[in-house]
Amino acid sequence: MAVCARLCGVGPARGCRRRQQRRGPAETAAADSEPDTDPEEERIEAGSAPPSGTGGGPCAGPSPSPPRCSLLELPPELLVEIFASLPGTDLPSLAQVCTKFRRILHTDTIWRRRCREEYGVCENLRKLEITGVSCRDVYAKRINPRVKSGRFMRILPDYEHMGYRDVYTCLLHRYRHILGLWQPDIGPYGGLLNVVVDGLFIIGWMYLPPHDPHVDDPMRFKPLFRVHLMERKSATVECMYGHKGPHNGHIQEFRTWLREEWGRTLEDIFHEHMQELILMKFIYTSQYDNCLTYRRIYLPPSRPDDLIKPGLFKGTYGSHGLEIVMLSFHGRCARGTKITGDPNIPAGQQTVEIDLRHRIQLPDVENLRNFNELSRLVLEVREQVRQEQQQQQQDGEGPAPPQEPLSARGPPGAPAEEGGDPRGGAAAAEQPAQSGQPFVLPVGVSSRNEDYPRTCRMCFYGTGLIAGHGFTSPERTPGVFVLFDEDRFGFVWLELKSFSLYSRVQATFRNADAPSPQAFEEMLKNIQSLTS
């Protein structure tokens, strides 16, 4: 009777529902002559009963216990709702409680909700439709674009006999650790791989910058590999890009790659040095078609006092084309780390570093056109930074307080002009961003994209990393960081007399946040050390 009481939650009584349903009249009469409780239940009640004489005098009996309500008494449809709200990782343990729970956990509605809330799966396995597109069309596009109609039914996953529990346990949960952003190890070129749940598959999409020099165009992407269920409880990992086994390239293959990578033909590229760089990249990347290793990368954490929202940007890099850069903020310093690279500055290196303590006030448009005037302002800031670093080393103290922008102070030794900000560059960086300040590139500074903004919010002193071929003789040279708006910034390379324009990658990435700021800093060190 104790076991039945625990399951039904009604306590010791001759009118137990579970026993009456299973017994006939004769068995019920015989059971009535038996004791109401077994020794185990008596021990439980004796341990839980209050001592006599408490609360009701010496002759008072034990106080009645409050009515107990068991989870098993709830109707199945309510249990389905409760179980569907639990994390999918807790459901296997719940199935071991009793047979009833295990039977309810076979309800497909529970696993469908977990697939939708945890991984964003919105497909209906029964209708075989995805947002109005038939599963046949989805398979042809996502699984094997070159599949012939005669082979389709033979290799189509058996979704009619596949449940959401199979999708969750055998696909989504099993491969959850590969979801997120990764950087392929392709020599100095790197890359950006986004592994996502796409429909009923897990697909690794390689993100590519738009064709040079259209930095504001959306990113391009192509599938690299996919994981899907071909049979029940059996996941298959397949490559969707590259070649099977060693192969010899030929001119037609190179022309196809050139159209996909650069959006033009070899005849359209007149610069001989640029042709050499493109051909070298094709030969180098073709060696990695069969086997690639990846390093996980995180998006930079955002703080309320950041100048703009950190993230991924597309930037122009001369003959190397467009590359992907990650902008992150570190106190009074901002850094641009290359996610994709080139033979001069490989992926993982810090291409630009911005000193947010030293703001540069640009001159009027006419003086800004003079490259020597801009160079004079930047070199004065560099000398100021050098002196502050020397003073810091001598004093053994923290960073020296920044001074006001040079154009407001005038030449060294001159008194500050009226209207200059006496609080210095750090305070100026904290002021509300100003808009509408005219901006033009100085005469002689080249830009791959002439359609750059003609107004900017503010400018800061920064340094850019330059090096010879093969990352030889790297050095940091002074430059100007130009903030245009929330989604665009630029950098003037004084040494190269060139201008890079950066535009934000307008894409939402799931499973890409760093677990902690320390984990993000460690990730930056790791990807930089691999190419140093």
From TrEMBL:
Signal peptide: none
InterPro entries given in the database record: F-box-like_dom_sf, F-box_dom, FBXO31/39
Key words, A-Z: Cell cycle, Cytoplasm, DNA damage, Ubl conjugation pathway
Residue spans of biased composition, Low complexity class: 408-417
Domain F-box residue range list: 68-114
GO BP: DNA damage response; protein ubiquitination; SCF-dependent proteasomal ubiquitin-dependent protein catabolic process
Compartments (UniProt record): Cytoplasm
Start-end of Acidic residues biased regions: 33-43
Superkingdom of the organism of origin: Eukaryota
Region (Disordered): 14-66, 385-444
Pathway in which this enzyme or protein is active: Protein modification; protein ubiquitination
One GO cellular component term noted in the UniProt record for this chain: cytoplasm
Pfam families linked to this entry: Cyclin_D1_bind, F-box-like
Record's subunit section: Part of a SCF (SKP1-cullin-F-box) protein ligase complex SCF(FBXO31) composed of CUL1, SKP1, RBX1 and FBXO31. Interacts (when phosphorylated at Ser-33) with CDC20, promoting ubiquitination by the APC/C complex.
Name this protein carries in UniProt: F-box only protein 31
Organism: Urocitellus parryii
Lineage: Eukaryota, Metazoa, Chordata, Craniata, Vertebrata
Gene behind the chain: FBXO31
